[in-house]
UniProtKB/TrEMBL annotation:
SUPFAM superfamilies: Fe-S cluster assembly (FSCA) domain-like, P-loop containing nucleoside triphosphate hydrolases. GO terms for biological process: iron-sulfur cluster assembly. Binds and transfers iron-sulfur (Fe-S) clusters to target apoproteins. Can hydrolyze ATP. Homodimer. The keyword Transport does not apply. This is Iron-sulfur cluster carrier protein. ATP binds at G116, K117, G118, G119, V120, G121, K122, S123. Keywords: ATP-binding, Hydrolase, Iron, Iron-sulfur, Metal-binding, Nucleotide-binding. The lineage of its organism: Bacteria, Bacillati, Bacillota, Bacilli, Bacillales. GO terms for molecular function: 4 iron, 4 sulfur cluster binding; ATP binding; ATP hydrolysis activity; ATP-dependent FeS chaperone activity; metal ion binding. InterPro entries: FSCA_dom_sf (IPR034904), Mrp-like_CS (IPR000808), Mrp/NBP35_ATP-bd (IPR019591), NUBPL-like (IPR044304), P-loop_NTPase (IPR027417), YlxH/NBP35 (IPR033756).
Amino acid sequence: MINEQQVRELVGELKDPFLHKTLAETNGITNVSIKEEKNHVSVKVAIAKTGTPEQMQLQMQVVDALKNAGVETVGIRFEELPQETLEQFRGTATRAEAQDVLSPLNNVKFISIASGKGGVGKSTVSVNLAVALARLGKKVGLIDADIYGFSVPDMMGVQTMPVVEENRIIPVDRLGVKMISMGFFVEDNAPVVWRGPMLGKVLDQFFRDVEWGELDYLLLDLPPGTGDIALDIHQMLPESNEIVVTTPHPTAAFVAARAGAMAIKTNHNILGVIENMSWFQSKVSGEREFVFGEGGGPKLAEELRTELLGQIPLGQPDWNDVDFAPSVYAKNHSTGQIYLDIARNVIGKLEK
Ligand SMILES: Nc1ncnc2c1ncn2[C@@H]1O[C@H](COP(=O)(O)OP(=O)(O)OP(=O)(O)O)[C@@H](O)[C@H]1O
């Protein structure tokens, strides 16, 4: 019967699929146990990222290696390598690995923007938060993952199309944000009707086949609501920090809480709440009128045990701006300033 030393040698030759180093080099074999009477070997393996197709492939390699050595049955469990170990390997990552947004060697932080229902301003918030982060000097990408209701290209005033170079999609660069949207791949604004596996393919393509370059943040404008499509997309995303957008009406907050619950259930971390359309400020009297009610944002934040990141008043950007982007507030617009404050807060929370 094979002994522990031999198991470690055999399995130790296999490579961590993300670090491209052998499991011996990464100290990735964390436990071996052998039941001689049953000719059974169990191994516990630590790799850079679990729950991926790459893990399944490695699992098959481990089983093959041990069965070829005469083991009857194999048990295998995976865990993730500690952050310190990953940190150690980050320095040796190739440029391609460091720029692959799904690689554990990439430091990019995902921020998803969700809402309980449509029309609360989720896309407006996504676009303005992305631009604000870029204005603060961050390298920012934005995926319009609202696959059926894409509006980001129009909101940002994008006139060009992404180009494909050597089988890689080059995202559109607008106001310092690299952006990709389903809108670029649909003719004449035709409605998108497919879902399920196709949906997964499109999202996967947005992650894997887009040349994002080096990024600090990748924002995702999610589809609205708490139905099947929103859930499907939540499940397909890499772990992310989620911002929930609501309007101030208590019932809106009630629906948004369900979006928050969905985020938690699918293992995303709630970063905070943004209340949009919080008030209308009269230019004449300077008074605030709470046209859509009051209290929804703070109530939602409390319910989700998170922070209210900011409140955005009603009002349009300055449309005389030369660099016209219909939904983007200028840096010196009072709402543009609010977005900058939110962006600073987000950076503070994620770059501790
Ligand atoms: N603070 C605001 N003041 C005035 N208009 C706003 C504000 N926020 C959003 N809007 C407008 O409200 C409409 C809906 O906004 P947006 O498309 O961002 O919402 P959404 O939640 O992403 O909608 P959907 O989920 O249906 O895509 C747009 O016309 C947008 O310009």
